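Subject: Sanity check before I submit

Could someone independently write out the structure tokens for this chain? I want to compare against mine line by line before I put it in a report. The sequence has 206 residues.
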Amino acid sequence: MSQEARNIEKESFKIIEKKLKNIKHPEKEIIKRVIHTTADFDFGNLVVFKNGAIEEGINAVKDGRDIITDVNMVKAGINTRILSRFGGKIKCYIQDDNVIEASKKDGTTRARASFRLHKDELKDNIVVVGNAPTAIFELCKIIDEGIRPAMIVAAPVGFVGARESKEQILEYDVPCIAIKGDKGGSTVAVAITNAILNLADKGENY
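---
Independent answer below. Compare away.
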């Protein structure tokens, strides 16, 4: 990053910090990165933290757990440098041949099929959804079967199923960071995940 870019980023975070005075650490670290990514201060009231999600996410990173995403756009944005330092990997199966075949056969989205076919890998790992509500609906079924992720980032965007999927996952007793309502998206999911990775990299302990 150039010095000019660093200066712009620093000034941007100063502006955000001024409007987040009432939000405490470490939640502030997550929210400010989402706002920095979106330039949307509404997210200050939309990010939901449940069941010690930040702490569990940090601990999972430090334990070398993997991150499984719903789409490759989310996978591409996550900081692999930090994750790999702790021994974790980023995985996305949406383009695998068996996933595509199952999706066509069952008439479901590839995101849903990828979670179903690789459900065992979701156990004790971090699951990040930034695009497909159907992936979260499938994740709920998988949790009902007794497979529990270490932490979930639920941030799909859209007007069909996004709001409902996030409301549903928040009913579960699983560490989760979710975005209320229709807003979200891959960049938001990435911002949340990278904030968790940065906190782990700084040596925060819980």
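---
OP: Matches mine. For the report I'm noting this point. The longest strand covers residues 47-50.
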